[in-house]
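Question (not urgent): is this output format expected?
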Amino acid sequence: MTLTPIGLVESPYRERFGVPRQGTLDGAGRGRIVLNPGANFEQALQGVAGFDMLWVIYGFHLNSGWNPMVTPTRGPKVKRGLFATRAPHRPNPIGLTAVKILGIQGRTIEVEGLDILDGSPVYDLKPYIPYADAFPAARSGWLDELPEGPTGPDRPS
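Got this back:
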């Protein structure tokens, strides 16, 4: 399988360690997704403005490797299995994040809640559909055990 970027992220975050964790919870910054010219992406965006949120599938383009055990930024400093976390260093450096759509102009989508590095390749976009994408009763594994709960603040670095 070969993934071809359909565009790039324009973000205020230029360094890996300056990117917020969980953008929609952290009040992360605004940015833009600029789709590539010459592929009729303007047509592909028709109807997207009717949605509040958008899933962005993108690449962790600055990651050089991964480990099976990682120490999450939240909770006690305990190593956990990579697949039980949202750590960016993964076997396939693919990220998924939800952003709020602020507006669409041509091939450019203005977004809020961004937690993606500037220059990251975008591989796909999908509308966030609440009845299909939200599972309020789902368990959050080890995050449920944290005193502040699964949506509490990150621990200080």
